[in-house]
Every structure is written in C-alpha cells, then in structure tokens.
C-alpha cells in the first residue's frame, strides 16, 4: 500500500527527525539569544548564522561539518569557565554534539532516542543523588528558605502561611546584617526572628514529595514501554511544577525535547503537547514573560 | 568500522562524557568547594545559591585588618586596601574576579584576584546558610588564601 506523504503538521505526530532537529535547534538558538541580553555579540551572530546555514544546507555533508563547528563552539564556551556554567548549558552542548553526530544518520531516531533516554535518566538520577546526599536539602532548608523569601509561590504562600511576609522582611534584614559584618559572616550562628507556624513542616513535606516524585520518574523511565503515555504525563507534570516555581524555561524545554524523543505509537498524542509546551517555554523565555499567578 | 557503527560509538562516547562530567562535578561539589549549582552535575536547588557566598579581602594585617567585602555589593575601602586610588577598569576587573571566585574558590583564582588588587591581601570566601528547620542563620569560612609573599 502506498503511504501518503506526511504534511508538516502531521510530522509532529510522527517520529519525524526534522521535528526533533528543529526543536533542538530552537532551544540552542533561544539560549544563545537569551543569554546575550539586548545586543548580540559577533560570536553569537556567527553561531546563529552557522546553525541557520546548517539547517538549510542541501548538502548534508556540509551541514554536518557546520554542526560540528557549532558544537565545538558550544563546548569551547564551556571549557575555560566550566565552574561558572549552569547545568543546562552542558545539556545544550551535548545536544549540539548530538546534532553533529546524527546529522546524516539513517536511521536517525533510534540513536536520538537512546541518547535522550540516557540523558533524562542521568539528569534526573544525578539530581536525585545530589538532593539525597545534601543535608541542607533533606532538612527542608532549601525549600524552606525559598518559601520564606518567597522565591517560590510568592503569591500563594501569604494565603497559606499567615505572617510569612513579615518574617521574610525580618529574616532578609538579618541576613543582610550578617553578610555585612565580617566577624558574623566568617563563622557564627544567629537565631532567626520567629518563623510562621507551618513553614518548616510545609518545606519538609514539599522536600519529601519532590524526592518521591523524582524517584518515581526514574522508575517510570525504567518501565517506560509498559507505562506508555503515563511516563509523558509525569514528565509534563514535572515541567509544569518547576515552571510554576522558577524561571528555568530553557532547561525545561530540554526535558520536553527528551520526552518528545521517547514517544512511541502509544504516546504519539503527546508529541503535539510537547511541541506546544516547548514553543511556549522558548517564546516566553525570549520575551521575558512570566505569568505571575503562582510565582 | 562502518558508518552505523561509528555513529553508535559516537553517541555512546557522548553519553559516557556526560556521565563522567556529571560524576566529576559531584566529586568536586562534595569533596571540594565547587558550588553544586554549576558545572554539569545537576545539583542546582540542593545547596544554598552561590549568591550566599561572600568574598572578602583583608590587608596584610590578617583578621585584625579592615575587611572589604568584594561580593555581594562591595562594601569597605578598597582603595585603602590597595594602597591608593584604583582605576575604574581595574575596580571592575577586581569585582568580576571576586564574583567568579565564589563559584569555585581555588588558590589560582584567588592569586589572580590578589594580583589585580596589587597589594598583599588575604582573600576569604564565606558561606551563609539560612536554616528554616533550625531557625538560624549559620555562617562559615569556606576558603582562605593568604597574601602572596
């Protein structure tokens, strides 16, 4: 039976290499433009032009050479100051290298899927290990501090934890006083002003929920074939949860790209959702737009 | 090796590199002073943000000398520490280097900062932890670089 050619909008529902490549290229470009700020430096222009040229180049050998140059540029940006580079910048560099490796690969998808499964498992697994091995995190201090200083759910917490606004002001003033005093900053223990009831318990509950969820996601990756669409709902839930708390759009778009690469016939409906979420994350990242409902 | 084999091996090498970088970052952030927020080990949101690290410069007198905070928000008399007026470009370079130092305090980075200041200076990096569970702010001296002789 002759198969009808796939229309562009249908490609999203198929395992079409061009869609995955376009998503990766979009994330790389958004990162380059977003981190450059207002005026793009010449190197950013050169990297964007190299990527655009690679995408439209009819000769795939030249396209692959251009991707190799671009991937090396991403890696070269990281190497000298790796201790200043955010974690998602490493994932972006890996994806740029993947594009160079797979530009002429036929079949493309099995390699991309293998890499994305590994990266998602590595990323979530290492993040889980880092959390479990950090007493600061496991005591609920990290999320407690974020809640207290209203770095997460800043609009929501005053409704659920009365008095958090006043506690935030007092704690911030104390923190600034400690930071401004050499002797206090060099080694001291200073009691915090009274904290609202329920803050520490909320933080601890959120901490253990987060650990359980992240562990669950690792297990879901193991049983992904059996779980089908459930795995993807878990990934999207993770993305939405983090999105509601922190401005990590590029990192979250990479999670969605990896999720997209893991879709199969049972979860093909998720592809449109992934593409929509990635588009939203990258466009709002570039526009600097954050809906202020939950944050 | 055919093309398919080369691609498979290439992707495997990339995966191995990602795992090694992640492992190295874990080691450096747990057994050295690299902040878990940076460096490719996915430890962001586990420890205090690097902005909770402060960088201080002290004159050759050590702990008794006037301390100048270089990060965050500079405070103190940097010119007195350096023994005279510091040109604006050098001031910017000093503050930038101090900001870099907080991510991964190391002797080489501290020596660069000392050279920029241009006078015998002791460099310290401190860390502040705001603990909701224990109801306290705890600080500690994370790193010290004595003045170059």
TrEMBL record, chain A:
It comes from the Bacteria. The chain crosses the membrane at residues 62-79, 85-103, 115-133, 199-220, 227-245, 272-289. Keywords: Membrane, Transmembrane, Transmembrane helix. This is Uncharacterized protein. It comes from Paralimibaculum aggregatum. The lineage of its organism: Bacteria, Pseudomonadati, Pseudomonadota, Alphaproteobacteria, Rhodobacterales.
From TrEMBL, chain B:
Keywords: Membrane, Transmembrane, Transmembrane helix. The chain crosses the membrane at residues 6-27. This is Uncharacterized protein.
